[in-house]
Amino acid sequence: MTVKPAPPGECPQCWQHAHDKSIHRRLKPREDCPDCVNHLLNGHPTLVPKKPSRWW
After folding, report:
1. Tens digits of per-residue pLDDT, 10-29?
2. Are 12 and 50 in contact (CB under 8 A)?
């Protein structure tokens, strides 16, 4: 299954982990994903930049 790229303003890692079930399939029940835990603690360093709003 191919996941679409993250939309503007979204974190690519969060987007991929939310929409690609194969990433967490290897985890045991109630086991936390180390990548997700690290990402939660350290924030979102690589957000996809949003396009500037031009409605004015």
Report:
1. 888 888 988 988 989 999 99
2. no
> What per-residue confidence (pLDDT) applies to 39?
86
* Alpha-carbon distances, residue 44 vs 2, 5, 29, 47, 55 (angstroms): 22, 16, 26, 6, 28
- What are the start-end ranges of the H helices in the chain? 12-19, 34-42
Global pTM reads 0.66
Say if CB 49 and CB 6 are below 8 A apart: no
- Inter-residue contact 51 to 14 (CB < 8 Å): no
